[in-house]
TrEMBL record:
An example Gene Ontology molecular-function term: DNA binding
Entry keywords, A to Z: DNA-binding, Pyruvate, Repressor, Transcription, Transcription regulation
Protein name: Pyruvate dehydrogenase complex repressor
Lineage of source species: Bacteria, Pseudomonadati, Pseudomonadota, Betaproteobacteria, Burkholderiales
Annotated source species: Sphaerotilus montanus
Superkingdom classification of source: Bacteria
Function summary: Transcriptional repressor for the pyruvate dehydrogenase complex genes aceEF and lpd.
Any single Pfam family the record assigns to this protein: GntR
Keyword DNA-binding set for record: yes
C-alpha cells in the first residue's frame, strides 16, 4: 500500500478574480473590441456584463491603469490608452513629415501587410465582420460619388481597419491600427492628390470593390491580389504625379533664367 504521506501534492493555483477580469479586458483590447480612445462602459454596467462585483472590477481597473492600458480622464470615465499601438507609430509619424522618400517604403510595407490581411479576412471573416465591411464599402461609395474628400479618407481608413480586424490576428489588428493612425494625414493627402487626376476616383472605388467582393466571396488569393493591385496603383499614380511636378518646376526655373 503506497505511503500517502510521501505523495507529492501540488497546491492549487487559485487565480484572483481581479486577475481574471484583467485577462478578460485585455483580451477585448487585443481583439479590437475595445480600441484606443474607447471609453469603457460605466462601472455598474461593466460589472454586470462580466458577472463580477464592483470592488473586484475596481481592483482590475487599477491593475490595468498601472500597466498603462487604461486611464481615467477628467470629467469621468475610463478610457483605453494607445499604449498597444503607439510604440510603432510615434517615431515614424514625425519622420514621414520630414523625409518624403519614406512614403514609397510605407506603400511597399502596406502592400505586404494589406495583401496578407485581405487574404486572411477572406478565409476567416465572420458574418458580423462581413456586415461591417459591407457597410463601410457602401459609405465609401457615397463619399466617392459626392466627392467628399475628408469623409472618403476617413472611411477609407476604417475600411482597411475592418479588413484587418476580420483577419482575426491580434498583431495584425494592432499593427494595422497603428499604421493607419500614423498615416491618416498621409492617406488624406494621397487621396487629395489622386482625386486631382480625372478618372482616378472611380478606379480607386473599383479597387476597393474588388477587395470587398473577393473577401465576401471567400476568395483568399483574389483578395490578396486585389489589395496588392490597389497599393501598386496608388504607388504608380503618385510617382507619376511627383515626376510631373518635378518636370514643371524644372521648366519654370528655366523660364526664369
Amino acid at each position: 500500500m503506497p505511503d500517502l504521506n510521501a505523495v507529492a501534492i501540488k497546491p492549487l493555483n487559485v487565480t484572483r478574480l481581479s486577475d481574471q477580469i484583467v485577462q478578460r479586458l485585455e483580451t477585448l483590447m487585443l481583439e479590437g473590441s475595445f480600441k484606443s480612445g474607447d471609453r469603457l462602459p460605466p462601472e455598474r454596467q461593466l460589472a454586470e456584463q462580466l458577472g463580477v462585483s464592483r470592488p473586484s472590477l475596481r481592483e482590475a481597473i487599477q491593475k490595468l491603469t498601472a500597466r498603462g492600458l487604461v486611464s481615467a480622464r477628467q470629467g469621468g470615465g475610463t478610457y483605453v490608452t494607445s499604449r498597444l499601438d503607439s510604440g510603432f507609430a510615434d517615431p515614424w509619424k514625425e519622420m514621414l513629415g520630414t523625409h518624403p522618400e519614406l512614403h514609397r517604403d510605407v506603400l511597399e510595407f502596406r502592400r505586404m501587410l494589406e495583401g496578407t490581411v485581405a487574404q486572411m479576412a477572406a478565409e476567416r471573416a465572420t458574418e458580423a465582420d462581413l456586415d461591417r465591411i459591407g457597410v463601410l464599402f457602401a459609405q465609401l461609395e457615397v463619399a466617392h460619388q459626392q466627392g467628399q474628400l475628408d469623409l472618403t479618407s476617413e472611411v477609407d481608413v476604417q475600411f482597411h481597419q475592418a479588413l484587418a480586424d476580420a483577419a482575426h490576428n491580434a498583431l495584425f489588428t494592432h499593427l494595422s491600427n497603428s499604421l493607419l493612425t500614423m498615416l491618416q494625414t498621409h492617406v488624406h493627402d494621397n487621396i487629395a492628390n489622386l482625386f486631382a487626376v480625372g478618372t482616378v476616383s472611380g478606379q480607386l472605388l473599383d479597387q476597393h470593390r474588388a477587395v470587398w467582393l473577393a473577401v465576401k466571396g471567400r476568395q483568399g488569393a483574389a483578395a490578396r491580389a486585389a489589395a496588392e493591385a490597389h497599393i501598386d496603383f496608388v504607388d504608380q499614380t503618385l510617382t507619376a504625379l511627383r515626376e510631373a511636378s518635378v518636370r514643371r518646376e524644372r521648366s519654370l526655373r528655366r523660364s526664369a533664367v
